[in-house]
Specification:
By secondary structure, the protein is an alpha+beta fold. Helices cover 37% and strands 24% of the residues. It has 3 domains: 72 residues, ATP-grasp fold, A domain (Dna Ligase, domain 1, 2-Layer Sandwich), CATH 3.30.1490.20; 128 residues, 2-Layer Sandwich (D-amino Acid Aminotransferase, Chain A, domain 1); 164 residues, 3-Layer(aba) Sandwich (Rossmann fold), CATH 3.40.50.261. The strands form 5 sheets. Strands 7, 8, 9, 10, 11 and 12 form a 6-stranded antiparallel β-sheet that branches. Strands 1-6-2-3 form a 4-stranded antiparallel β-sheet, with helices on one face. Strands 14-16-17-18 form a 4-stranded parallel β-sheet, with helices on both faces. Helix 10 crosses helix 11 and helix 11 runs parallel beside helix 12. The radius of gyration is 26 Å and the shape is elongated. The two termini are 43 Å apart. The relative contact order is 0.09.
Amino acid sequence: MRLYEYEGKELFRREAIPVPRGKVACDVESAVQVAEEIGVPVVLKAQVLAGGRGKAGGVKVAAGRSEVPGLAAELFRLKISGFPVEKLLVEECLNIKRELYVGVSIDRVRYAIAVIACAEGGVDIEETARKSPEKIARVNLRVAEEMLPHQALYLAKAMGLKGAELRPAVDMILGVVRVFRAHEAKLAEINPLIITAEGKFVAADSRMSIDEDALFRHPELSQMGIEKRHEEGELTEREKKAREDGIPYLDLDGDIGMFPGGAGFGIMGIDFLVSYGGRPANFMDSGGGPTPERLAKMLALLEDNPNVVGIFGARFGGISRCDDFARGVVMFLKEKGLTKPMAMRMTGNMWQEGVRIFEEARKEHPEIFKNIEIYGIETPIEHVAKRAIELARARKEQGKK
């Protein structure tokens, strides 16, 4: 789960990592008060659990006090990646001489903790690693291995630092590793790490993700108000509704709704859609042995999603029976109806009975099946995925007319 910038900086501060002077503001008036305490110029930074904040206009510089109310109001009206801005971090402006990058993450391939440094900060580090890997320096640590000063010194020199700059850089690197370990993080990142004109090293930004399953071991985080939350942003209204019903659900940015059986089949279905040029609108998992009522609620999430123009259903019956799957779909169709086209396939446990249930329901109520195509084991799932994409595109073209 991801932390807000101000939360990550508080954890940095506790490990003696210098951060800019600043406070969180929840409205325009408090933003003005913080600016007066700190003294202008100040930086106003939108606090959202999503990336791309700077490109979305979520960071503003107020050169004078008179600029603060207008800029703060502008930021509070902003939505970033669909999430409203409800908090601002108001900080002192730094006199920047140079920007660097330091981060700690988990290398799942090497089963190691990766400590990474780069001489270029304030950029997309993944893009830098892809285009200019020679600019990235790293040290791999075993899970139980502490980072030693000479390893941090290697990274500091790799960033092009010399002389008096080396000691504070080593302290910053070791500090980030301490934060990462102390709070069982998945990511701890300073981007950018600023060297000011006065020669001070300051963490100008923080990005942290911690393991929510380890929260019970960290009462200090609960005391800061850090509780279980969404990985990349605040929950959408559909995600909140799904959580209330106990349905694992995640909104994505596509337009084809995923109506799968288990999580594995759901992930595979998403891969099929993407590989054939479709864009999935969600991830969803029915869980083992779902009831027809639960399946109907899952389908309702897609019907009520305005971004969904078509639906791809994929059920592999194991402990979850295909006839129960069919009953849940029929229940929803009879009670509410489906306005969006759907192509779906069933295989595995009781798939023939599931197909029979659909065929009987279609004979009784042909009108509610006019936009629905149902396939069995004789049809490859690749065909059904392609068909779902075709139906979605046809629906979009129809909407343009």
